[in-house]
């Protein structure tokens, strides 16, 4: 015999519903925080410099504060759709939410595949183009400058490509034809010992004239390897850890998509029950 379901029976699982709600509520708050931080930094930089260049896609990609605000906006909108869609049992919002997660998952997989499939020569061309943009904008964007200095000092690298410290010859302040006192030099963050231990002060002149020196001599004063090569070497040494983390993120995304589609199906089933 089949047990009869009472009038208060619902096909919608409260566990699935509130699990999606809680997860997206956390990401919704995180997205709002990213928007606030990004806009605050963007406005502060605008007031300090009075000029922000956003002519090309590279200008947007290299504007860290604006990029944080844009990413925060995407997280805010998508998580808000999942949060409200689960709470209000709205299938349209749930479909939008699961579609966004699926697109993100496919973009991540496509990027990983392209990284292995594309030839090394194409990677080199992309690196050269990106390096020229980054190095050229070093002094124009305070946020980008702080980020590059942080990366170079922490990863013990100088420049981006395999040319290493010679990448800075593409910068209008550090190239050897510049009238600046920094000509033929590199930023202080490239220096092996930029900080005086006794005084605690940073010697901003420690990299002056280093482009005129061969690699063997320059390596005594500054880091000579490019940051991309350093990061690539680190990734190769920790390939299993990175692959495990990437697999964990991918499975988490698929699990959330599964929850959203499950809740969507339960809501549709409940609506069909009401209609009959």
UniProtKB/TrEMBL annotation:
Its main location: membrane. InterPro entries: Tetraspanin/Peripherin (IPR018499), Tetraspanin_animals (IPR000301), Tetraspanin_CS (IPR018503), Tetraspanin_EC2_sf (IPR008952). The keyword NADP does not apply. It is found in: Membrane. Keywords: Membrane, Transmembrane, Transmembrane helix. Gene3D superfamilies: Tetraspanin. It is a multi-pass membrane protein. The chain crosses the membrane at residues 21-43, 63-84, 96-118, 239-260. Belongs to the tetraspanin (TM4SF) family. This is Tetraspanin.
């Amino acid at each position: 015999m089949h047990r009869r379901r009472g009038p208060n029976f619902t096909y919608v699982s409260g566990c699935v519903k509130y699990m999606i709600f809680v997860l997206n509520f956390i990401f919704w708050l995180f997205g709002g925080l990213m928007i606030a931080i990004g806009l605050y930094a963007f406005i502060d930089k605008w007031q300090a410099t009075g000029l922000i260049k956003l002519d090309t896609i590279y200008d947007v990609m290299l504007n860290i504060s604006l990029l944080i605000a844009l990413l925060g906006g995407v997280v805010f909108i998508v998580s808000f759709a999942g949060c409200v869609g689960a709470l209000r049992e709205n299938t349209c919002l749930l479909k939008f939410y699961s579609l966004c997660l699926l697109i993100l998952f496919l973009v991540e997989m496509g990027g990983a595949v392209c990284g292995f499939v594309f030839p090394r020569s194409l990677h080199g061309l992309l690196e050269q183009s990106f390096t020229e943009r980054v190095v050229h904008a070093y002094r124009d964007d305070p946020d980008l400058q702080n980020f590059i200095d942080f990366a170079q000092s922490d990863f013990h690298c100088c420049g981006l490509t395999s040319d290493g410290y010679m990448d800075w010859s593409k910068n209008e302040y550090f190239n050897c034809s510049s009238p600046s006192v920094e000509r033929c030099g590199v930023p202080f963050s490239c220096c092996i010992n930029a900080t005086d231990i006794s005084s605690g002060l940073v010697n901003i002149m420690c990299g002056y004239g280093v482009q005129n020196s061969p690699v063997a001599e320059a390596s005594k004063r500054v880091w000579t390897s490019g940051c991309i090569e350093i990061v690539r070497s680190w990734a190769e040494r920790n390939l299993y850890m990175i692959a495990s983390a990437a697999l964990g993120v991918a499975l988490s995304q698929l699990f959330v998509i599964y929850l959203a589609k499950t809740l969507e199906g339960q809501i549709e089933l409940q609506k069909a029950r009401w209609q009959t």
